[in-house]
Amino acid sequence: MINPDWTLPVASLIFLITLFALNKLLFQPLLKILDIRRERTIEMRQKAQKELEYQQALLEEYTSRIKQEKQAGYRLADSLRAAALQERQQAMAQARTDAEQVLKQAKDEIRAEAEKARHRLQQESEEVAVLITARILQRS
Question: Tell me, what's the pLDDT at 1?
């Protein structure tokens, strides 16, 4: 027949006590530490994700502002270029007007001088004609 051996229940009881003690002293604190670590890791990842999103938003804003400032600079350069071109055209028109006025004045002076010369020649020719007539009449 079978003799009951009391070592199996004693070993089982020791195993259960050891399991309970290990669970209370080692496994539960270790699992708690792992849970805390996992939560901290999740929090850190969330913080990092938020910081990344914030930095990306700043980068987009910075890029947008740079683009706006470049466009403003281009517009300013274009307006300055247009103003300089307009000023140049006005200066050219003024120079052309001044040149035309000087040319007209010179032509008027030349005409006046020519008229004076013509008038003087007319007088001189009349005087010469009178002298010639007088000499011819004296000879006759």
Answer: 54
Token digits of residue 20: 């309970």
61, two tokens: 């804003």
For residue 8, give the H/E element and its range.
helix 7-22
DSSP category for residue 52: H
> Domain limits at 56?
13-103
Which is higher by pLDDT, 138 or 16?
16
Question: Residue 27 gets which letter from DSSP?
Answer: I
Q: pLDDT tens digits, residue range 71-127?
A: 999 999 999 999 999 999 999 999 999 999 999 999 999 999 999 999 999 998 988
Residue 78 lies in a domain: yes
State whether the Cα torsion 105-106-107-111 is positive or negative: positive
